[in-house]
Amino acid sequence: RKRIHAPEHEDIDEAIHHWFVAAREKNIPVSGDLLKSKAEQFTRCLDIENFKGSNGWIERFKNRHEMRFKTIVEETASVDYGYLSHSGMKLQHKRDLYNVDETGLFHQLLPRKTLASSDNCAGTKAKQQITLLIGANMDGSDCMLPLFIGKFGKPRCFKNVNTLPLTYQCNTKAWMTAEIWKEWARTFDEKMYCQQRKVVLFVDNCPAHPKVTGLKAVTVHFLPPNSTSVLQPMAQGVIQCFKSCYWKLLLRKIVDCIDTNMSFQVDILQAMHLVRKAWEQVTDKCITNCFKHAGWIQGSPDVVIEMPVVHITEECNTLGISESLIDKITEEESHVSTTEGMDDGDIIASIMAKKPQDNESCDDDDDVDCEPMVPSLHEVLKAVDTERSYAQTLQDTKDLFGLINKLENTCRANCAH
Question: Key word Cell membrane present in the record (predicted)?
Answer without folding.
Answer: no
